[in-house]
Amino acid sequence: MGEQDVVQYAVEDGIGVITINNPPVNALGAGVSEGIITSVDKAEADHNVRALVLIGAGRSFIAGADIRRFGTKREQPTRRSYDALEQCSKPVVAAIHGYALGGGLENALCCTWRIAVPTAKVGLPEVLIGVIPGGGGTQRLPRLAGAKAALEMIVSGRHVPAPEAKAMGIIDEVVETNDLRATAIAFAREKAGQGLRRISERPPASAEPGMFDAQRKAIARKARGQPAPFAAIAAVEAACSMSCSEGLVEERRLFGELENSPEARSLRYAFFAEREVTKLPQLPKETAAADVKSAAVVGAGTMGGGIAMSFADSGLPVKLMDATREALDRGMERIRSNYAVSVKRGSLTQAEMDKRLALIEPVEGYDAIADCDAVIEAVFEQLAVKQDVFAKLDAVMKPGAFLFTNSSALDIDAIAASTKRPEAVAGTHFFAPANVMKLFEVVEGNRTAPETLATGMKLGRAIGKISAYAGNCDGFVANRSRIPFGLEQNLMVEEGARPEQIDRVMVNFGYPMGPFAVNDLSGLDVNYMTRKRRAAADPNYRKWPVADRIVEMGRKGQKTGAGWYRYEPGDRTPHPDPIVDQIALEVAAELGIEQKVFTDEEILHRLLFASLNEACKILAEGKALRASDIDVMWLNGFGFPRYRGGLMFWADEIGAQAVYNQVAAWHQRYGARWAPAPLLREIAEAGGKFREAKAPALR
């Protein structure tokens, strides 16, 4: 597309209208900035034009820069659209609908006036992809909205609704209209001749003493390893001490330092991986996903309640079903308590809590959900229990209903076999806590219909999740790829590593919590039951005796006051416990294992290389479609540090050959569990990238 295609210019009743038409979101791609400049120049040369309107066609104003151009060699223009808009001798009205994000908001800040429809959102989310605003946002927004408000917006990257943006002074008018173009033209005609308001001509913003140091301290833990939030603070600080022209130079310098940093490259990769994961190229082109207008959740326990909250949080009604009124009452009380915590923290209003609770309808018995379009089973993780539930669902659910299971590992085909409609059955695996975690694994059984799979993916997106495909196997993709991590985590304890050392290594790597602390938080008894099932099915299964003995002592994690760590009453701080060290010593002696001292790097690589090797097997079997899908799962299901891109991306930074050499060495030392996956060997020998690997059907 040339600039004439992506930007249109017209004159209507003395108002020049610049329309961005670069679908799907009007990103500032090739030709857009140039088209804006050309349009402004035409308006300047036409004495009949008294003012201008900048507006987006389609569903958005301008939703940001074209991220694909970041990190590439590109010529820096001598004149940018920001300059043309702000230096225009005639008033320019930015008419905002949809999103004005990043460069979109920065262009709007260079206009004389900004109007928006109530549903519009504005923001400067560049820190989420490892950079800072590079079009003057860090200098103009503080001068317009105040340093404190601008700092919060830029460091968090959040999207601000139009009414709030008006209260902050970013938007001049929120307009209720069915024709934004006509409204904007009328607004521009009214403002023509009233002079210009250039934000860059305002003096530096004022800031409270100590505000910037306080912000650095506030984000120190969450933003560790990420330079962008700290650069954003520095840029806004410049807006409070420099002229706008000086601040713009400093902003460009900081942006340039960040653009090609490892963190920015990783975050850009994650951004695109989360868009790619939604695509299922194996489905027939004519496959249509159904609209689920009524849904039910079977099982009012912790998981079922969290799933019901996910629907309510997205504004969708849901029925929560259990066999008894007592179970329902407990479930609803747990949901109310969870929402009440959010209200207490200030992240949710009481009115919003009441609205969400009203969307969750507790019902008894299967007959009460028979007319729903889809049902998600969330009962105890035992095959016989789930098969019984699905047989009952099959008997009552209307024809065409979709039957989904929240199983985290069990055989989808075995569950589907208990129905007369296996084509309507698929896995929809939520991660705990279900109302918080973004990952939504959609699992295809041997007889799952394409429409069922597509509907499951669409349903996940409808409730704010990131839907990712998985083939049917024990643990599916996410948990199966994580099993070796858990195994090595436990075996290293037998070999002499302490839980607190392993947790420290992983927190330093970027995880919010260490794996043993996470185990205690989620409860040790669930994985204990899974291990028992796997050991019964596989005579060669490598047991976890230390973990098993801890559970058998009644130590199930935080809920019992002790697990891998001990906990004081009312305090969730994990304290190392000599009892665990003693158990590890006893197990090592019984198994003839000589304990040793571990380096931090050995711990990190033992955990992650083991899972990487399994991920290569999963891809080769076609159970995952793309390596980048696995990265999305680790980022959104397991808390893998986003600024490292994901498991496969991170391994590429080390190099496939180096990873293969270490895995092969551990194969010699530890035996069959470390046998290099054929795909791992293939990528290493070819000098390839793990992140580019795909299932055989997609190669």
Please tell me about this protein's structure:
- Helix content is 48%, strand content 12%.
- The two termini are 30 Å apart.
- Strand 15 (425-430) and strand 16 (439-444) form a beta hairpin.
- Helix 5 (137-145) crosses helix 10.
- The protein contains 29 helices and 19 strands.
Q: Helix share of residues?
A: 40-55%
User: What is the molecular shape?
Assistant: globular
Query: Largest sheet, order of strands side by side?
Result: 12-11-10-13-14-15-16-17
**CATH level 3 topology of the largest domain:** 2-enoyl-CoA Hydratase, Chain A, domain 1
Task: Report the total helices.
Answer: 29
Return the CATH class of the largest domain.
Alpha Beta
What is the CATH homology-level superfamily of the largest domain?
2-enoyl-CoA Hydratase, Chain A, domain 1
Low confidence ranges: none
What is the count of β-strands?
A: 19
Structural domains: how many? 3
Query: Largest sheet, described in full?
Result: 8 strands, mixed
SS strand fraction: 5-15%
What is the residue-averaged pLDDT?
Answer: 95
Radius of gyration in whole Å, from Cα? 28 Å
Q: Structural class per helix/strand content?
A: alpha/beta
| CATH architecture name of the largest domain | Alpha-Beta Complex
First-last Cα distance: 30 Å
